[in-house]
Amino acid sequence: MKAIERTTWFLAILIGVFGAMAAHAQITLDITKGIEGGGIPIAIAPFSGGATEDMAGIIASDLQRTGKFAPQAAGSRADYSVAGQAGPGGSRGYVVQFQLSGAQGGQLLNLSFDAPANQLRAVAHRISDLIYEKLTGDKGLAGTRIAYVAGGGGTWYLMVADADGQNPQMILRSSQPIMSPAWAPDGSRLAYVSFEGRRPQIVVQDVVTGARRTVSAAPGINGAPSWSSDGQRLAFTLSKDGNPEIYALNLGSASPVRLTNGGAIDTEPVWLPDGSIVFTSDRGGSPQLYRIGPGGGAAQRLTFEGDYNARPAVSPDGRTIAMVHRRGGRFHIAVLDLQTRQFRVLTAGGLDESPSFAPNGKMIIYSNGQRLTAVSLDGSVKQDFALRGNGRDPVWAPFAR
Q1: For residue 153, what are the CA distances in angstroms to 13, 19, 150, 157, 233?
Q2: Using alpha carbons only, how large is the chain's radius of gyration in Å?
Q3: Model pLDDT for residues 135-152, shown as the tens digit of each residue
Q4: How far apart are CA 142 and CA 360, in angstroms?
Q5: How far apart are CA 308 and CA 323, in angstroms?
Q6: Sign of dihedral through CA atoms 50, 54, 56, 59?
Q7: In the chain, is it the N or the C terminus that has fewer CB atoms within a 10 Å radius of its CB?
Q8: How far is CA 223 from the centre of its chain?
Q9: Is residue 334 within 8 Å of residue 326, measured between CB atoms?
Q10: Residue 53 CB partners (closer than 8 Å, separation 6+)
Q11: Residue 338: is it exposed, middle or buried by C-beta count within 10 angstroms (0-12/13-18/19+)?
């Protein structure tokens, strides 16, 4: 790799080209493009009872986004039907009931929930996930969350929203860039890079309380934090000893342990379930993905397709690696199956970046530097998000525990 190209690649990783992002006073996220293709017909009737949320509309939207279902109006010919009500309950809340039935009239689900008025949307997501799991056997994503970075031009925001983009909450506002958010395995904390004080540092923040802890502020680069599966360790990139290398930190300790050692740029570590680490390195002449054991040691090269594969993300089962892949001058999201070695490009490409797996492993969210998009693992389902403002560095939260 030429020296100028190598430097440009690393600077793009480090600063994320934040200068192109425009600040907006209101940061919201709305789904504006539906699913490509059809799905199982399911008729969803409006919920009776006068709830303040359109429960049926939320459920229909949730199911449609999965690409597995084609919601229909009540009374339509469909394989399945949903009916329900959300009536007044105790303490000014609601009692939400719903039934899922098959075309032959057999009842598949019949459940009820007590819900405060401000939790009706969450209950609708819960119903969507119950329906999805009952009919597909897989856990649904409607009740999960995403985090992303918004803003720019002097003000940056770390945001958390529902998986449908609604209910956005600002976790942090800063006059300096925020980068690389990463969810803890229990979904209670986010690690990220903050440039407060005009120098990079790695911060861990409690999502509910807002309590923050700086875990690394070493001289030079502090970048790309990633959680181990037990939530006890972070891997990240430091250049305190001169060259960007991979380190691991036990959060009960003050001293990170160096895992790579060489003249190459080693960055963007992510943990596999077995404790090994996948990372990006240009040690072979161009950015490619490598794997090392839990304690470091010799690195195994994983990618050989093309001259650029970077920004790895690991599926929850550890079988699949998503990455940014360059082809024909365009940046795509691609996946590598570690068992079969099958390599697949999922997106049409452009400036695609920052892939992150959904907790059920069925979808991958990513950014093009301006907006967020999700694509299914086989590339057949696509969800486009439109932001009032810009968004990048999306990361899907784990299932709630």
Answers
A1: 19, 6, 10, 11, 33
A2: 22
A3: 999 999 999 999 999 987
A4: 11
A5: 10
A6: negative
A7: C
A8: 18
A9: no
A10: 86, 120, 121, 124
A11: middle
Interstrand relation of 40-44 and 80-88 (parallel, antiparallel or unpaired)? parallel
CA angle 64, 100, 63 (to 5 degrees): 10
**Cα distance between residue 311 and residue 168, in whole Å:** 25
Q: Length of the chain, please?
A: 401
Measured distance CA(325)–CA(347) in Å, rounded: 10
**Tens digits of per-residue pLDDT, 211-239?**
999 999 999 999 999 999 999 999 999 99
Two tokens at 237? Answer: 């990139």
Q: How far apart are CA 308 and CA 284, in angstroms?
A: 11
| In the chain, % of residues over pLDDT 90 | 77
3-state secondary structure of 293: strand
CB burial readout 123-143, b (16+ within 10 A) else e: bbbbbbbbbbeebeeebbbbb
Confidence of residue 197 (pLDDT cuts 50, 70, 90): confident
State the Cα–Cα distance between residues 66 and 93, nearest whole angstrom.
Answer: 29
pLDDT exceeds 80 at position 125: yes
